[in-house]
Give the backbone structure.
Amino acid sequence: MIKKIGQNFLINEEIARREVDFAKITKDDVVLEIGPGKGILTNIIASKAKKVIAIELDTSLYNYLKKTCPDNVHLINDDILKIDLDSLPKFNKIVSNLPFQISSPLTFKIIEYNFSVAVLIYQKEFAQRLVAKYGSKHYSRITVNVYYRAICKYIQTVPKNCFSPMPKVDSAIIKIQPRKKHPFNVYNEEFYFDLVRNLFNHRRKKIKTTIRETYDIQAQDLPFQNNRVENLDPEQIGRLSNSLFKLLNE
């Protein structure tokens, strides 16, 4: 089960403490931890927070944690991707060493929730995608979609020898803060995210080609048609989305 979900246990206590410090946890905070593993991070969070909600998929690890965790840790043996976050006790911060293989769906899931800050360890390449600038090799669909919802900051690289079993690549600590207001307006969010997906699925094609093939339309007055999506910043993609949405709904 652990191998299947890509879990590598953090074994460096200094990194765990730094991760908790970056979240500035106080006795007023209720913290969500995803994939506590053997509890190195859990225990540090619990020493500073009012309460920890720790969700562990692996039953053997869950049973181990039940015997070792402090009383203010609420353990749940379940799959985080199948849980409605609103069904959990209310939490305001998230601190976790995330299983690599669920990083993308989990990130999309948590940024829909109303929290104040998340400090998360991701695989380094994925972390670079979260903070990438347009035109760079790491710029991707998740860069654009997360940018619309949250502000991401790359805190530090975490060497692979800080984990057991040791992964093949380094990791990184990322700080995520939900935006109080979107950085730009789109006419229809569902259409915008669908357009982002379509454009990045064909990122090597010019935008006019993808639009013609996907939406069966040719329009001379749409902006950025001769560009590729990787050369547009999120706001420019938003402008394109609004123009195309308006055209398709006239």
Summary: Residues 1-5 have pLDDT under 50 and may be disordered. The two ends are 51 Å apart (CA to CA). The CA atoms of residues 31 and 93 lie 5 Å apart.
